[in-house]
Design brief:
Blueprint: E1 3-7, H1 17-25, E2 28-34, H2 36-39, H3 46-65, E3 71-74, H4 77-87, E4 92-96, H5 101-116, E5 120-124, H6 146-155, H7 198-209, H8 216-219, H9 232-236, H10 242-250, H11 257-275, H12 297-305, H13 311-323, H14 328-341, H15 346-356, H16 362-372, H17 388-395, H18 400-405, H19 414-417, H20 425-431, H21 446-465
Parallel strand pairs: 1-2, 1-4, 2-3, 4-5
């Protein structure tokens, strides 16, 4: 009998266990559901949706080459999936597992509706290298510290990477239409999105594994170098199998261990979200739940617009607005600045990132923001506060990244570039950059802000550990 392969965050044909299972069950009707709860909900993003729609068009083309095609529907999955399964007379619906709280509720509702219609629901692995149930400590417990997690994760065997199918026996129905972004009621996306689809993602992976991966440990933190893989959006949408990425990285003729560890960090935060879904609403560490964050809309807007007066922060924020991308080191710098220097609630930054990032992922974004705000799983204490000037000098030593995104600073001499407010008046005049006119003065003094943050965090920790706070 026919079966439905419901694509979600697995928009590929290579290494797709759910697709293989569907093919083995009989003719396949590939389906994608445009879910209004995701398109217009808490984490709505024009950039991410535009990349998704382009990837769906590429997926449809790849399916057509193999004798099938993508069927697109709009609506609540609990209503749409059973209706589509009945339309093609399917006995089974296959999916790749998804791990967010919303995805779990959605899949449970779909499974119930299918069961009522006499249709089986099958969830297969494929979105992660290892499942949340598989990575455990010695006593069988979930792990919430990365080092023991990585040790346990690395020790597990890998299944074989599956090839893409040559032909897909098709069960057809009315295909539906992959819409344009504007028809979904979303604003335009940025022009600088990366090429979408599985073929483009595989090309990015090939380029990275052909050489840059071998220098990854040394170059990955440099803001001025192309030292990263740039496949984060491909992993988020499942254009690449994380299992294939790890398998191939381990096979390169150099030590790619640092890169593999970064893939494991992605998995770690997905596992944290699976075991502790509350983290999408509150800190992992309850001791810091009562931090008195500042209500400072003007400071937040300056941060979001890249107008803080700290060049490395501003360059990163402007890159995000222009491209929907931000380097991981830059993410740590700007997140630390918002949460520690400005003492503004990290959840506001988390939401801003999700509105703009093409690779915005609820698990990884939340984990990264909680790490930067020292309220998450990280074992390091709260007094880790990034100095934006020191970070700038270390990871953009010649200022190439800053000058690329802050044209008003392009003529500032190197010695002043990372802290332009120190320029004498005549140097400002010669550089065509008057501080306070052409480029803002710092909106906060880092050293004073650091002392303030330490006092606030220490007070919150002390209050939580007191008898009254327990």
């Amino acid at each position: 009998m026919p079966s439905v392969l419901w694509f979600r965050r697995d928009l590929r044909l290579h290494d797709h266990p759910a697709l293989q299972a569907a093919i083995e069950a009989g003719p396949v009707a590939p389906l994608f559901v445009l879910d209004p709860a995701l398109l217009r909900g808490r984490w709505a993003s024009p950039n991410r949706t535009a990349f998704l729609l382009a990837s769906l068009r590429e997926l449809d083309a790849a399916l057509r080459e193999r004798g099938a095609r993508l069927h697109v529907r709009f609506g609540r999955p609990a209503e749409v999936v059973p209706r589509f399964a009945a339309e093609v007379a399917a006995a089974d619906v296959f999916v790749s597992r998804d791990y967010s709280p919303y995805a779990r509720r959605r899949d449970a509702a779909v499974a119930r509706a299918l069961e009522a219609a006499g249709i089986r629901f099958h969830a297969r692995r494929g979105t992660l290298v290892h499942e949340p149930e598989d990575v455990r400590g010695a006593a069988g417990q979930p792990l919430s510290v990365f080092t023991p997690f990585f040790r346990a994760w690395s020790a597990l065997p890998l299944r074989a990477v599956l090839p893409a199918p040559g032909r897909i026996p098709s069960a057809s129905a009315e295909p539906g239409t992959i819409p344009q972004l504007a028809s979904l009621g979303l604003p335009p996306a940025v022009d600088a999105l990366p090429p979408a689809g599985e073929a483009a993602a595989r090309a990015r992976l090939e380029r990275f594994l052909a050489g840059p991966v071998c220098a990854y440990a040394e170059t990955r933190d440099r803001l001025d170098l192309a030292g990263t893989s740039r496949i984060s959006q491909d992993l988020h949408f499942g254009l690449l199998s994380p299992l294939e990425v790890v398998t191939r990285a381990r096979a390169v003729p150099c030590d790619a261990g640092k890169f593999v560890a970064e893939v494991a960090w992605r998995e770690f935060y997905h596992h944290i979200l699976w075991h502790h879904p509350r983290v999408l609403r509150e800190p992992f560490q309850p001791a810091f739940a009562a931090i008195p964050w500042r209500n400072a809309p003007a400071d937040f807007e300056a941060w979001a617009a890249g107008r803080t007066g700290y060049p490395v922060v501003d360059a990163a924020m402007r890159e995000l607005l222009a491209t929907g991308y931000m380097h991981n080191r830059a993410r740590m710098i700007v997140a630390s600045f918002l949460a520690k220097d400005l003492l503004i609630d990290w959840r506001l930054g988390e939401a801003h990132f999700m509105r703009h990032l093409v690779d915005g992922d609820v698990a990884n974004n939340d984990g990264g923001w909680q790490w930067a705000a020292s309220v998450g799983t990280d074992a390091q204490p709260y007094f880790r506060i990034f100095n934006p000037v020191a970070q700038s000098k270390k990871f953009d030593p010649e200022g190439a990244f800053i000058r690329r995104w802050l044209p008003e600073l392009r003529r500032v001499p190197d010695r002043y570039l990372h802290e332009p407010w120190t320029m004498p008046a005549d140097v400002q005049q010669a550089a065509g950059c008057i501080i306070g006119r052409d480029y803002p003065a710092p909106i906060v003094d880092h050293h004073a802000a650091r002392a303030r943050a330490l006092a606030v965090y220490e007070a919150a920790r002390a209050a939580a550990s007191s008898p009254a706070g327990r």
